[in-house]
Amino acid sequence: MSKCGYCGKILSTKHAFQIHMRTHTGERPFPCIICQKPFSQIGNLNKHMRIHSGRKPFCCDVCQEAFSHKLHLELHIKTHTKEKPFSCNICFKLFPEKSDLNRHMEIHTVSKPFSCDACQKAFSFNSHLKLHLRSHTGEKAWSCNICHKAFSKKSNLIRHKRIHTREKPFLCVVCQTSFRHKSHLVRHRRAVHANEKPFSCDICQESFAQKGNLRRHARTHTGYKPFSCNICQKSFTANMNLKRHQRIHIGEKLFSCDLCQASFAQKTTLENHKRIHTREKPFSCHICQQSFTQKANLTRHKNTHTGGKPFLCGVCQTSFRRKSYLVRHRRAVHAKEKTFPCEICQKYFGSNDSLKVHIKTHTREKLSTCDLGQASFVQKKSLFCHKREIHSKENTFSCVVCKKSFSRKQSLGMHTSIHTEGKPFSCYICLKPFSSNTCINRHMRIHSGEKPFSCDVCQTSFVQKGNLVRHIRTIHTKEKPFSCDTCKKSFSQKGNLESHKRTHTREKSFSCNICLKAFSYKRSLNAHVMKTHTKEVDGVGSFHAHAIVE
Fold it and tell me: What's the CA angle centered on 158, arms 152 and 161, to 5 degrees?
């Protein structure tokens, strides 16, 4: 029997006494021949050597996952048995390991003897304090030998290097998916296979697979936004949202589409964009089975079934189905904020981006040019719509009632009013009703005589931009971008192409309300009514109101 002179511990053998003394003296006589890391016991060195050799002799009987240490296997088995033998005697929370319980007990004891002199933040361990001090000193002792990026922790450098090597050492034994970080693998197992959500919100009881997600969620209740943009002072609940936002200011677009070379600031935006090419719609409504490319669109759609209007105006208590409608309402009704004036025509705008787009109508600046033709556009969005409508002939937006497809979401919205018969906007001069605010603004130019769209070649002016585009194609460029798939005949206007297609299909979409005779063209129906039925009805004017197609 031997007694330790430092701590008074009694050891049964001389060998055990020698090993114990090394914990006080710091002696480590057994170094690794590969990485030179020293150990106090030869058994620990043998365990360490398995890292270099890759040997994992301890295998789980349930899922066949292998481990280099027996202790790691024992910890892993508890994920299958759900065994949590260690209980907190204060709050009775259960833990699978004693070390987890010891860490938890620090919450109750609040024993944090190591304090930072700069910000007075306290820590339970001296090692944690040392790491924290680097946030004040800016010390980054660990540098990447490939891109020279520096880190305050060695573990962060090791994780960073996997970006260059593309190494994903953490493998899920269930689905064989590999991950760059162990935390990602743990997160994957919880969310996908175990469906485990151990972190619960005390206020609304919503559960999360990760503690960080719970922390971010809690800020939705408190309204706390600790991450602030140093350029525009906008605040965010999560640091990753701030980093994503800052790309708007620097113009950084890291994510590029392989098919059309369009670039995006966010990876999720790129993934949504790719579905335009693949026509994939993974989000489906369980009520009407309509599918959507984005989850946010499905969420908005569900409100059409439930009648929900979750966005409430704090001033007048009006509720809205979409957040964008609420923002628009606040600006137009309450704030009436249009703080960005155009120095040329004195027109005011609600945002600086809208002002920049408007200024290009004065300068005639067209930065985006179609690489398939000679058309150029003020906005990149207009170029994208042009390519989809003219060259690729993609009709992404489909009407749920009649299944008619449109290349633009705005066109679908205007078309939908045909089915709903909703025309809430009326002209205050002639009282003619319209389905959208855009239509009534266009109509008002008839009364005012305004013709804002002017031809650069002959200076002819037009009420509508579409009329200007048709004029340029017909008179100046002779461009005919719309071609028939059957006979290859080309047309300058899409409407002319649709009329021409009926000569092949023999379709007769326009029928007379009186004799039910059908016609291929609207003009043929109107001519038929005027010639055949005008004498059959008293009061020609009243007859025209319902018989002649407008």
Answer: 110
Judge if 7 and 105 occupy the same domain.
Answer: yes
SS3 284: strand
* Phi, then psi, of 109 in degrees rounded to 5: -75, -25
Tell me what pLDDT residue 278 has: 84
Residues 147, 96, single domain; the answer is no
Tell me the pLDDT tens digit for each residue of 406-443: 766 667 766 766 665 556 667 777 777 777 667 777 88
**Measured distance CA(316)–CA(319) in Å, rounded:** 9
Task: Give me the residue label for tokens 């197609």.
Answer: 549
Q: pLDDT of 341-382, one tens digit each?
A: 788 777 777 666 677 777 777 766 655 677 766 666 666 667
CA distance 207 to 316: 34
Q: Hey, is 491 helix, strand or coil?
A: strand
How many structural domains compose the chain?
A: 3
Determine the length of the chain. 550
* 252-271 pLDDT, tens digit each: 777 888 888 788 877 888 88
3-class DSSP state for residue 85?
Answer: coil
pTM for this predicted structure:
0.30
Helix, strand, coil content of the chain in percent (nearest 5): 45, 15, 45
Residue with tokens 């499905």: 298
Which domain range does residue 47 map to?
2-109
Q: What is the distance between the alpha carbons of residues 443 and 233, in angstroms, rounded to a whole number? A: 41
Domain containing 159 — which CATH number? 3.30.160.60
Residue 169 vs residues 47, 125, 183: alpha-carbon distances, Å: 19, 30, 12
Average pLDDT over residues 100-108: 75
- Residue 295 domain flag: no
pLDDT, position 47: 81
Torsion, Cα 147 153 158 164, to 10 degrees, reads -20
CA angle, residues 427, 428, 431, in degrees to nearest 5: 55
With cut-offs at 50, 70 and 90, classify the pLDDT of residue 549.
very low
